[in-house]
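[job 0417] fold request received: Phosphate transporter PHO1
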Amino acid sequence: MVKFSKELEAQLIPEWKDAFVNYWQLKKNVNKIKLAREKTDLETHQQHNYGVSIFEPIRYLFKKITSKSLNHGDDDQRDLIQVNSKSVGENEEDIYETSLGQLFSKADEVREFFEKLDVELNKVNNFYRVRESEFLNRGETLMKQLEILVDLKQIINERRGTNHLLRTDIRESFPRSNSPSLRGSDYSECVSDADETIPNASSNQHDMITALERNDANSIGSVRMKTKSGKPKMSMRLDIPATTPTRTVTAVISMLWIDLVNNPKIDGSNDFITRNKIESAEKMIRAAFVELYRGFGLLKTYSSLNMVAFTKILKKFDKVAKQQALGSYLNVVKRSQFISSDKVVKLGDEVESIFTKHFANNDRKKAMKYLRPQPHKASHMITFFVGLFTGCFLTLFGIYAMLAHVSGMFSSSFEVGYMETVYPVFSMFALLSLHLFLYGCNLFMWKSTRINYNFIFEFSQSTALKYRDVFLICTSFMTAVVGAMVIHLILRSRHIAPHHVDAIPGVLLVVSIGLLICPFNIFYRSTRYCFLRVIRNIAYSPFYKVVLVDFFMADQLTSQVPLLRYMESTACYFFTGSFKTHQYETCQSSRTFKEVAYVISFLPYYWRTMQCARRWFDDGEMDHLANMGKYVSAMLAAGAKLTFAMHPEGRLWWSIVVITSSIATVYQLYWDFVKDWGVLNTKSKNFLLRDDLIFKKKSIYYVSIAFNFVLRLVWVQTVLHFNMGTVECRVRDFFLASLEIIRRGHWNFYRLENEHLNNVGKYRAVNTVPLPFREMDSDD
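[job 0417] inference complete; emitting structure tokens
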């Protein structure tokens, strides 16, 4: 049977861990009571151990009867403890305080236990009250946003001459008077001043229709509301975040036009609300409802788990103290807000009804797919195939190693063309497989340490990959690659026509690309398309709004510059027909090839630089500019190293490589440790680490810091002059590229650990979705 402490740790919400009942500390307090009681019983036994009287059985029976009367008498039970509540603060928050009866008055351990129990109850109750108020206010805001959206959709359909009206009375399903989200709420973002009234719905529609008539039939101007005196008061504005290149360019041009040509205080009626904006607003509101409903579910889980924790710990206390304080204290817990309040339950039902009606065409099953996405169940077949492909990979790799040794592939006498043409193709696949394997290890470690990576990356639980899925992709992919390498060596040893044999890597590449873009729902289509979208967002930086998964993936690309160079060699190898002519010097000596090499070496750092610039433009934080400087220094170092590789005899370029790489390395190490990992904090209670740690053993972090430091310095190998042949240089480059990927996989865990701890510190367990409609005063 699983202990409740482990069950609680497995089920609690990671981001709210500090707000849960500290069950483990309360268990320690109960153990103190147990030890104190055992010590008292032992002393009593020693004092009366001088002999046994013939009246001892009568005395024992009398004690049992007295004990039962104390344990089961209602009046005496009330005398054990008395929980008092008082209201404090402007919000009249309930604070609970326990008074001990005469039986416990001299027991310091019992007093300490109930003081800690009161602290935990007040903490849980106050946290629930704050989160409940937050979600109720958000629900009220969403209701108003949805009401505006339905009005606009109705007007557009009316102007198009349709008879079908999308307008429905939201108040029937989300009533203002009965909804718990609206009672006692102080939300005032979308309401007017107290001494002014907002025109009714028909007046609003009239204003919007007038704006329609002033514009074209497919766009709506922002509506200018008026007060009773006829003065303009506020206008409704539709703000869609500039998350795509078109919106970004439009926003920048509009901003420049306002600043350079027009008066900044332009009339809101010149802004157009197009059908595309309405559709975007609907998606934003739908996503906001999904997150709100998820928050309700988390609050329910929070309430139920804490209730069980209070029940369990009070039972333990009763068992140790041999009293019955459970009933008295548990009645107070049940009357507290986090148990007695039903506002979240009612509002959750109302959100289900609204979402089903407005976003699922009254199809409840479809609505529940959005509101309650179910993670796909782990199949034992996945585990079986992971083991199968792992065995196949190891067997084929052993065969390949023996064939390579027999054929003398890695000797200087072997055909140089193999290392210049075919070997880079297979090296590209090997580096990609290594990165996938390390990502699978990251997923396993994040899951083991309760890091909510799906929430951090904003992945859907129903389609997100698990570590077994990643291992399956990795092992199957690597099995195919090594199998192709074995077939290639066997055919070459049998003297088959070289232009036929050397087409094998190309066939493997075409199959891989075809599988990546395959439109059929096979082999993790949602993940493949998500990957392509992220790559698109990176390639078009800074025109797409940068989210965490975008710059996280771009960071992976900065460690895959050798892979990108291998891709360049592969493209040249096939597009120039080198696999037929075997004139591999065509690519190496081409000026275009060398110029493209510079571009490829710069691209990952350029993308990250543009992402930092976009984040600074959106957030205005100077840290993003400082981070941008890190990638600029890395870009300069990469260019210097590439030039030195082309001109290894130049002492000037050697000096430039050492200087630029040293500056970039120091910059990167500082950012790794201080910003990305959050360690090297001199004021931390954990020496040179941070206050909150996932692992209990601090030595793990010190070893990881040293490991990252060493792997950041592998570039030194490239500036040391060693007399190596072509084969040795290729193997060395592959080995150094593998070390950088290993460093990146190691870095990934601590980067996400720091992000998770930041969410825990802010109790951020639900994404805040920006809302489209905003009311502006006449001065805006």
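[job 0417] notes: The longest helix spans residues 108-159. Residues 1-40+82-164+265-373 form one domain.
[job 0417] exit 0
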